[in-house]
Amino acid sequence: MPVPVSATKSVDGFELPAQFAEASKLVFTVNNTRFQLSPAKGDDLDLTLLEFIRSKGFTGTKLGCGEGGCGACTVVVGKYDSAHASGASSSSSSASKAPYRYKSVNACLLPLVAVHGCHVLTVEGIGSSSNPHPIQERIGKLFGSQCGFCTPGIVMSLYATVRNGYGHLTEADIEHSLDGCLCRCTGYRPILDAAKSFATVKSDKNGASASNDTSDESDEAEPSTPPEADLITRTPCAKGADCCMVNGSKKGCAPSTSPSPGISTTAQAIQKVLDPNQFKPYDAAAELIFPPYLAKDAFDAQDLVFVEQLPESDELDGEPQQTKADSSARQVWLRPGSLKSLVECMKLYGLDAGGKIRSGNTETGIEVKFKHLKYSVSIFVSDHIKELAFYRSEERGITVGANLSLTDLVNNLRAERPAGAYAKQVKRAILDNLAYFASNQIRNVATLAGNIATASPISDLNPVWVATGAELSYIDAAAGEVDEKSVNMRDFFLGYRKTALPAGAVITKLFVPWSAEAGSVVQAFKQSKRKDDDIAIVNACLRLSVRDDKILDATLAFGGMGPTTMQSVEAQAFLVGQQFSAPETLSQALQILAKDDFPLSYGVPGGMPVFRKTLALGFLTRLWGLAAPRLGLPKLAAAIEALPDLEELATSTVDRPVTKGLQDLENVAIKQPVGDSIPHLSAMKQVTGEAVYIDDMPPVANELHAGFVLSQRAHAKLLKVDAAEALRMPGVVDFITYKDIPAGGSNIWNPPSMDETFFAEDTVYTVGQIIGLVVADTKRHAQAAAHKVHIEYEDLPHILTIDEAIEAQSFFKPRPVIHRGDKSDEGWSQYDHVLEGETRMGGQEHFYLETNACLVIPGKEDSEIEVISSTQNPSETQVFCASILGIPNNRVVTRVKRLGGGFGGKESRTIAFAAPLTLAAKKLGRPVRVMLDRDEDMLTTGQRHPFMCKWKLAFSKDGTLERLHARVYNNGGWSQDLSQAVLERAMFHIDNCYRIPHLHVEGYICKTNTMSNTAFRGFGGPQGMFFTEDFVHKAAAVLGVRPEAIREKNMYQEDDETHFGQKLVDWNVPTLWQQLKGSADYDARLKAVEKFNAEHRYRKRGLAMIPTKFGISFTAIFLNQAYGVVHVYHHDGSVLFSHGGTEMGQGLHTKMAQVVATELGIPVSMVHLSETNTAQASNTSATAASASSDLNGMALKNACDQINASLAKFRAEVAAKGLSGVEAWKDVVHMAYFNRVQLSAIGHYRTPGIGYNWSDGTGTPFYYFTQGAAVSEVELDTITGDHRIVRADVHMDIGRSINPSIDVGQIEGAFTQGFGLFTLEETLFMNNGQLATRGPGNYKIPAFLDTPSDMRISFLKVQDPGNPAAAKHNKHLGTIQSSKGIGEPPLFLGASVFFALKHAIADARRQYVGDEAEGFHLVAPATPERIRVAIGDPLVRLAQESTPRREGEKSFFVAIS
User: Which of 924, 859, 860 is CA-nearest to residue 892?
Assistant: First the structure.
């Protein structure tokens, strides 16, 4: 396709093709608001879409990560496309053929110039809390929103799916459409329930559907019901899941009058409060219309240029003039509307001239934001250039336009029906690797050319193009050529990020051949840390051509095995001419692959050398097993003796079906409204984007922004800190350090040890330590200037790991000890068995979706300061914001409206940012705001403590646990923070639920040079219990029995005493255990697992059941108190209350509203809480320790009791009038006011009967224990380490639930966070102390489809009419409404997934190591890498043998446990 060249002209000093408009305007609409932007009017267009829409007040769209990995920023972009209406569009999955298309995108990455001619929809635009969209209504009312920060992104992602495909959608379609969104609170099940209610087409038993199936027979799904009848609004059917309409019949049968709602959840609580008929039906006609003025193709063809207009100098005449920025410093965006214009732009501004093509911006956007790269000229391309956005199919193969989006490529391929066998395989290979390529949002904007040109060594698609011999066409614009050239993809990659493309080249198309002679086989593979939205660890596309059992040709292309997509040259050369079916052919090829083609060193960049090599070997082995039946050859003999039946090996992958859940909730008659499953009081505000978080607050007059200057060394002296260059940058106002702290102020903080400084002074002790902060007029200016502060260091030795700390004896004091019975080192020989070992588990990033945020507003008089912070600890924030200034606490007010998640991470570490901001605000007399970027937050705020335990266990031959000595180490980081309390709780919980007569445990806090590790949900308890379950599991292996047998045998009984001397009352674990064993059908499922494993060699299942007890109370006794304030307003009887707890999604404010309403005898609708405020509730304890409902609920009850006592006589008088309900209440309050009776009260509560003396080991540290048990079943692919949770049953004793459905959400969320901790989430450091895992790109939390395929939650009933004996449960419980704390206790039960995996691994190992199968060590988290290597089969051993560790060689990454 030759392209003519035209003349040029100058626009604002820049040479451009003549056709570019000099006064370009960017035209688009957000919801109903029209925008027309131009630099000439002072508009800044060098923005992301997220930055722009938030600046215009559309703050429902959130910044969660800035790299397109969490989905919080998701919006929907609509675009006119006349070809779509005619049927020529590639997006054939849309429900209608309207001439426009809507797609979900990551606004944090999308350049603003991308939305020219588009209709942008945000969460505010589709509904409001008073008139919500059906999607918003269902997610809100079905408990799908907790903290709410992620919710708008989830709503909009689902909105795009429903708007485009309603009437065609299966449950599987909907589940997969959410692959680009993360939630840290809910555990996903309620969101999935609400989302799947929009399905109208039944998925098959494996969860496949027309739109995600890659088979050649798949056709687009047809609606099985009218659009107005989805799974929630249709009349319920008595047949349930077997309904003929759900299964495809269009006529259906007579509807049932059953009251059961047609949604997948079975929670009776929802039925109590929600009538399914009240849900809005989805109506496509009610959607916001596409703006008519945008309905034309002309926008795409326009050539636009946007040149940054530099501000005029503020300097006065006669003052020294700073050097004026030259034109090259200005940011220029070009948006060519045709291939011709694009080629001309690249000729003028190719790579050598500072230009950069940016399309989906999914890679370059991250480079700009996190690597601080600058492109002077950005050339935006996308599918708006029609000559580059096409798809053609012919018998020889397919031709794909360079700018076709990956979503459109998928849609076109799904519609293909190739005739040839090889063509079908090529189609499947492309679709297989696109199925888990990034996320929906990324695939919607990412282009084919962008993915190829990026030349990522782990690209999912490039191995396919190499293996198939695809031909890439391009125009060498920089050389002035107009004709296309081509290069075969096998010759394209030259090195790390280096390709055969000349600088300034424009990729035009890719031709993928799929016409091959009979005997060609091709297959794609990928393995990553997480299935959805994750980059590959290793991927591959492997191709063989075989005729008459002789290999004619081979192309084995791998990603993740070197600096670029690589071919296994030596193995390929060997294979040509070999007999395919000869066992030695594959065996020798594996040897060559491991030793010659990919000789990865122990310290290879990216780490995991053995695992990566094992995956490559496994992929090649799988190809052999898949190829034989495709080639019509007989079943192959084993290539390696211990790996028989290659066909089974090849097909033993793990498939994930559609998820489902069941909740068996408490059903007891208790005082209302406590006990009702009312939705979170902020839910409808959260789903509509109306809920206000700190960064959503409108700018305050004269507001400034802060950018923190952070240490880049793990341990070093500060030789020089020079901010001169930073202070000269645009918008910068000041640079703040410890030197700015006024007389009387203090740089010291962090109780109880007070060993930390707000600002580093002469030494830094960790990467990420705060050195200072730049204050500027915008966040961008502040962050840019912070990177310009010049710092000189003198490096000092640093310590990262627990082992290094032990070797250096680097510990904090104190070193606590607990013992019972014999604590000597003698007498071990008397026991039947003595086992010694060590157990390790890594840390965990909180990954709350809202990063740390703070706004400080200085007062005009009396040194008053208002601190608005996303903190769990308002009072401690107040204390240290006053301390840094040296002013009384009564001059500082801390306010907290809501947090976008906390999990303990905002208990203490928020103060490290709030106090320096307070200093800056006070010094400058102006408000200062900050919201950390995700990488800053992860680098600076601390994580769950990594732990290691060295233990010695004695037990009898019948499995009785008799003696334990343990030394427990946690990695505290550079300061102590809360490490002592975390360590002590781990020691308190090291018994879990088992009586060990002789127990001695010592604790050590390791002082290292990592960030200061801190509180995290569970607070040491999960680590202590994990040690217990690990040595129980290993003791069971010695005895040859199931671990559950040892657990049952040693379980505490009522009135037993723990190793720290606390008597167990209301001990319900044995009851929970037996109930769960029955309801989870444990015995039958164990037999089924054993049968499955006997029948499957390469796919294994595992089952594990564990209990938990979690002590409820702060171990620092003074924190076990709370204040509650209640005001009753006489005019209308409404009630305003406040307490010291903060709302972070756990539903605390909702529960407290229920408590106040119940105690006063009024509806919840009459009760309101505005915020947590230290001026209203003083001396508050942190919202932590799962004690907030207990403490604040009792304090509010105390306040209500005072008011009720004041109102008692008036109630009697009103009752005598015959009034009742709300009218009676209003009359009572009115009478009380006019009789001058107090209508406000301050309540106080202190937890009775607790306290522990560490010096003599006496006392009662916990008020009670929340107890539970869980059974988890997993399925494991032993060739890759990939696995899924088949089913999880969690059974909890939570007393009388104040709000059962909110408590279910806490259980599901904690369990999900728990299995993330134990199986998925891995924090890694570099050897120099830099944190390697700084965002969702490389730190993986559970995603939607990691949730158990079947998740069942149930409660121990407080009362059971059918079982009078059940009344004994919790008879000693003295908490608010007899409820129990639930936030933290279920988290440890996620470890049941870890131990189920150990069961599966042991069964796999038995085939290779025999009697040693059970005796293996597995470090948590059990990542695919650790699982795969633990199996120890011949492929692993070959990888290990060919990866020797040279003397002094270090691994690329460091795990600090």
Answer: 859
Residue 780, C-beta contacts closer than 8 angstroms, at least 6 positions apart: none
Residue stretches of the annotated binding site: 65, 70, 73, 108, 147, 150, 183, 185, 437, 460, 526, 872, 903, 907, 985, 1017, 1019, 1115, 1185
Mean pLDDT in consecutive groups of 10 residues from the start of the chain, 1457 residues? 64 81 90 95 93 97 96 96 58 57 96 96 97 96 96 98 92 94 96 92 56 40 40 47 44 37 36 58 92 91 88 56 49 93 89 78 75 84 95 95 96 93 95 92 94 92 97 89 91 93 92 87 95 92 95 96 96 96 93 95 95 97 93 78 87 93 70 79 97 97 98 98 97 98 97 96 98 97 97 98 98 95 90 97 98 97 96 98 98 98 97 98 98 97 97 98 98 98 98 98 98 98 98 96 98 97 96 96 98 97 98 96 97 97 97 96 96 95 96 98 97 92 96 97 97 95 98 98 98 93 96 98 97 95 96 83 62 90 97 98 92 84 97 96 92 94
Delimit the domains of the chain by residue range: 26-214+221-293, 695-798+852-930, 1117-1253
Q: Is the distance from CB of 845 to CB of 1339 less than 8 angstroms? A: yes
H or E element that contains 947: strand 947-955
Q: Which residues are annotated as a binding site for [2Fe-2S] cluster?
A: 65, 70, 73, 108, 147, 150, 183, 185
Active site residue 308: no
pTM for the model:
0.94
Identify the sign of the CA torsion 913, 916, 920, 922. positive
Cis peptide before 1421 (omega within 30 of 0): yes
Considering the segment(s) 695-798+852-930 as one domain, its CATH architecture is Alpha-Beta Complex (3.90)
Detail the residues annotated as belonging to a binding site for substrate.
907, 985, 1019, 1115
Torsion of CA 743, 746, 747, 753, to 10 degrees: 160
> What tokens were used for 696?
């959503």
Domain 1117-1253 CATH (choose: 3.30.450.20, 3.90.550.10, 1.10.3720.10, 3.30.365.10): 3.30.365.10
Architecture per CATH, domain 26-214+221-293, reads as Orthogonal Bundle (1.10)
